[in-house]
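Database export, one record per block. Field names are fixed; values are copied verbatim from the stored entry.
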Amino acid sequence: MVCTEIRFVKKKLMGKLLDLTEKLSVEVYEFVHELNDSRDRTLSNQLLRSATSIGANSREAQGAASKKDFANKLQIAFKECKETQYWLNLFSKNLKLSAQKIKELISLCNQIHFLLNKILYTTRQNMKTQSQK
């Protein structure tokens, strides 16, 4: 019963994660598109690459060959999320025009960061428990 409950929670969290990462990707794409009309593209392209990589790696984790592979893919997504937070914070210090939009993106990124951390923690705890059996 406990194993079934863990799978349900993990599936529910992954569903929410995938929804949020897709939303972040779309919103960052729109934000970057607006910025590219008038600003240097280097930083905005970095933001776009890291933000879209979160969702790509999260989805790739769903097809993982093992729990270790699953955790590794989500760890990459976690690192990309940290990078996205960095770029968003950098933009928030340098762009006054889009302050509200940047705050919304930071909030969304923070939610994703929290979910990734929770899923990774649970996965690692389950792996540790299973290896002790």
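Remark 1: The two ends are 17 Å apart (CA to CA).
Remark 2: The chain has a mean pLDDT of 87.
End of record.
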